[in-house]
Design brief:
The protein is mainly alpha-helical. The protein has 4 helices and 2 strands.
């Protein structure tokens, strides 16, 4: 009987990837807090996670020849949304420092929780393989 990592790890591997993507977006917002006309961005974690888990159940296209057309590629991630500011600034920047820091910290805690859970899953699998 073979071990399926997808079954063993469940949704947590995908959740860790989405949390990492969100951390990058939030860090970019914080880096641009003083950039005129910069628009704060974020993603809806639940929506993206649901999309990735349902997409994993469907087939994907793969180019098998160099002349095949690439389908569905875009430089913009459709999951990344713009944040509506509570108090817009005069220079057009929509990054609100306190909100971005709070969201970043909440995401970091959730990332750590997912990482800790995955780590315990791997320890359990290792123990099962060794027969401990």
């Amino acid at each position: 009987m073979s071990i399926s990592f997808a079954n063993a790890l469940g949704i947590h591997e995908t959740a860790l990837q989405v949390r990492g993507q969100r951390a990058s977006i939030l860090a970019n917002n914080l880096a641009n807090v003083d950039t005129p006309n910069y628009k704060a961005r974020d993603l809806d974690f639940k929506q993206v996670l649901a999309g990735k888990t349902s997409a994993a159940q469907h087939f994907s296209l793969q180019a098998t020849h160099q002349r095949h057309l690439v389908v569905g590629t875009s430089s913009e991630d459709p999951n990344v949304l713009y944040r509506v500011p509570h108090q817009p600034s005069i220079d057009g920047n929509t990054v609100e420092d306190q909100i971005e820091h709070a969201e970043y910290m909440k995401n970091a805690l959730a990332f750590q929780a997912s990482f800790t859970f995955l780590n315990s899953k791997f320890k359990g699998l290792t123990s099962a393989i060794r027969g401990d």
